[in-house]
Structures are given as structure tokens and as C-alpha cells.
Amino acid sequence: MDQSSTILTPPSEPREFGFFVDGAFVPAGTRDVFERASPGHGVPVTRLPKCTDADLDAAVACARRAFDDRRWSAAAATDRAAILLRTADILRARAEEIAYWETLENGKPIAQARAEVGGCVGMFELAAGLARTVHGDSFNNTGDGALGLVTREPVGVVGLITPWNFPFLILCERVPYILAGGNTIVAKPSEMTSATTLMLAEILTEAGLPAGVFNVVTGSGRSVGQRLLEHMDVDMLSFTGSTAVGRAVVEASGRTNFKKLGLELGGKNPQIVFADADLEDAADGVAFGIAFNTGQCCVSGSRLIVERSVADKFGRMVAGKLAKARIGDPLDEATQIGAITTDAQNDTIMGYIAKGTEEGATLLSGGTAPDLGQGQYIEPTVFTDVTPDMAIAREEIFGPVLTILPFDTLDEAIAMANDTEYGLAASVWSKNIDKALTVSRQVSAGRFWVNTTLAGGPEMPIGGFKLSGWGREAGMYGVEEYMQVKSVFIEIGKRDHWIK
Ligand code: TXE
Predict the structure, then answer these.
(1) What's the pLDDT at 7?
(2) Which of 86, 116, 216, 494 could form a disulfide with 207 if both were Cys (CB 3.0 to 4.6 A apart)?
(3) For residue 98, what are the contacts with CB-CB under 8 A and spacing of at least 6?
(4) Ligand 1, residues 116, 245, 348, 352: which to mutate, most atoms within 8 A of Cβ?
């Protein structure tokens, strides 16, 4: 794992992990084991226990105890902040190791994985400050006989189900803020990419987090994941994944204890490009927006909505940019586009590319799966002659597939951008501030970018409108999401008696 060498290599044999409960790793023992192969190399890289129902119940019971005895929620915010800051320091020191395992299990380029870990350090640093600044309110205007206080309290035990596309980043967009609020956690990472979640458990413990506050169970969504959704002792559940499973999360909460929910689901995000944009910048941004993380990104800009007068020229500019992006071994420092993370996702993306052609769209560029000798890769793909009713224009593909739709007027651009059941993210490219602001106001999306895309920082909230989900993650919005509000009304002085 020498970062100075150009190409790292996969481990000679898979690394064994246990799951993590009550501050310690539990080895697989007699449990079934899931072996994960690197999508970029096709060789096994990790082995993880398939946790049982009893394991999940034990992890929830442990998180429950750790919450109820107030070992974390009653700690002074300064102490919580100190642990979050120590975590940031250890993350920084172990960034290379985390990036390596993230790349092996996910297939993303190592340079990108390193940048993501850097972003996660910032999440912990910000959350440390927020642990100390989150506060309630007071009403000193209720007359001399009363005082109203509004306090914030942690929700309790939080179940956290995360996907395989950004296993560490999505985790760290949530964990520091959940901990800042004083909650305890049972995390269930995707069975495809659990290693770095387990590494975070080790790091939090080293940073001084009390045992039982952060627990990790490994295994499939249908088994331990579903049980976590239905668990009566889980007070809140944060789910990031498909809209279909998001529905199952809502149903499970309704059937059981009405646990509070946070949902970040799918997207079909528009990139609106006006003729007055800096087209060179916009072409680079649109190419990045669809090819980053091989389009396996809930905020991918997968629908290019471009002013008709420049549509042909701009489509060629984007295709030209994408043709220059370097596809290759995810462990190669120079790689910009890595492997497709799962076999199922690979089939889904290739299926949509075939469907686009069948539906009558024209393949402007890409569309093939290059043979790099090992692993699974798909070229960034651009379709023109797309109509808004085609499946490739409506459904989340979750791959590097861009559709181009031309527009004539501003109102038409806004209507096309909103013509989707999703509302996660959107971008507008224009040098005319009136157009850019009008579009930003009228497009339904939880995240909006002007003359950029897939950008931001830990202060900025994350989440969606419409079928893209409920609630917001990150920043102060994220901390408040994982807290309850309590109103405390206090009488001052002698009571005015009801019964005289
Ligand atoms: O997601 P799942 P998949 C979208 C994307 C992709 C599609 C399918 O379109 O093609 O979803 O991906 C756990 N109870 N996104 O099948 O199944 C599962 O173990 C409890 C968008 O991988 O939703 C994993 O930890 N948990 C997205 C997590 O849910 C269950 C990111 C996500 O898996 C469960 C990923 C169940 N019944 C996919 N079934 C985004 N918003 O970024 C599964 N899980």
C-alpha cells in the first residue's frame, strides 16, 4: 500500500472481518460467511460474517442499554466533541488504508476514494463543533408568571442502513451528526461493501467512544436489514438506497413502532444548460456529473436538458470530454472511471443501454463494456434523439448513461426538469443571473448547483423532494434531524388556583 508507487495491487488473500458489538469485534465463528470480490479485479478481497437474527437483536439491545444508561447522551458536549475531533485525526492518519479497502470493495478510483476520506474528516470536525452549539430556544415573553423552554434531546437508538456506492462517505455524512446529538447506533452496511464501516467502528473506539454506542452488523438487507427496520427498540432509522426498499422502510415503520425515518433514495437529476453558459465549463461539469463514480451516484446529472440552439454542438463537446476520461484499474492513481460495483448493477446498466437503442434513441458515444482483462467496466454513454417518455429518460439507471433533451424556452426547461417523480438534485449552467435564480427557485430538488455540480461541503444539507426521500443529512440540519424537541413550560411564583 505504498502511495508513491503508481499502481497498488489487491491483497494476496481476502481479509477476514468480524462484526462489531459492545466495543469489540465478534469473529464469524460458525456463521455463514460472505466473500466479496473486487469488482475491478475479480479476486476475493474480504470475508464477512452473515449475522443472524440473534446477532441483530444483541446489537440493538446493546445500543439500547448504551442509550438508556446515558453513558453518551449525558456526556458533556465538550467530551463528545473531543472524541469526534480525535476520530477526525485518526481518520486523517489512516486515510490511505481506508481508501484502499473502499476501492477494493467498491471499484471506485483510488484517487477519488482518498478525496472522499478527506471529506469525511471534515464531517467529523464540523460535527464536533455542532455537538457544542446545538441548542433549543426560550420564550421569555409569556408574562411574569411563566417561562417557556424548548430543549433538544437525542432520538435514541438509530438504525443506519447504507448502500454500496459511497460506503464510507454516506456513512460519514450521518454518523458524526448522529453521535453529536447523543444517540447510539446500529449500522448495517451493504453486504457488498462493509469493510470501511467496520474500520470506522475500530477508529471510533480508539478515539474513546464508549462501548455500545456504535455497533455494526453485517449481512443482507433482506435478513438483518429487514429485522432492523421492524425492530421495536429502534427509535429512528436512516436509510439510503433504492426507492423500492425505501417504501419497505416506511411500511415497516407503520407496522411496528412508527420509528422516525430519514430516507435518501433515488434520483433522475437534470443538468440544465442555457446557450449563454460558459459551454466549455458546462461540458466538463456535465461529463463529470454523469461519469463520477461511474454514474452510481444518487445525485448524478443523468438528464441533460440543453437549449436547442447549442444542443448538437454541446452534445458533441460532452461526448468529446467523456472520450478523454481515463477508464482503468481502480487502484491506479491515474484512473478517473473505475469498475461497476456489483454484477447486478452491471447487468442493469447494460440492459438500459440496449433498451435506449430499442426505444429509438441514437447512441452518440460509448455504450460498450471495455475488456480490461479483469473486472467489469462500462464506457460513459450518451444518447441523443431521446423523448421524455423513454425509460432511459425517466428511470434511475445508476450508471454512466446520459440522455440529451433539447428545450426552447426557460419555462419549458423548468417543466422538463420537474417532469420526474424524483427531486434529489439539479444543476443550471448560465451566465445570466436572472435565469439561473429563476430555475433554482422553480425546480424541485433538495440540492441545487449553479454553474457547478456535485459540489458542496459538510455544512450543506443533503436530501430530496418527492420520491427522493424525507429529511436532511449533514451540518446542523443533520444533527437536528436526529434530535427530538421538547417543550418545557415553567410556572414562576404562586399558582392562580383553579378550585378556589
Ligand atoms: O439497493 P438496495 P441495491 C438505487 C439504484 C440501484 C438500485 C438497487 O438505482 O440500481 O437502488 O441497488 C439494504 N430491508 N440505489 O439493490 O437494495 C441493503 O442491504 C432492509 C440508490 O443495492 O436499496 C443495503 O444495505 N434493508 C442509492 C441498502 O439497503 C435492505 C444507493 C441499499 O440496498 C432491504 C444504492 C430490506 N428489505 C442504490 N433490502 C442512493 N440513493 O444513493 C436491501 N436492504
Answers:
(1) 75
(2) 86
(3) 91, 113, 117, 168, 196, 199
(4) 245
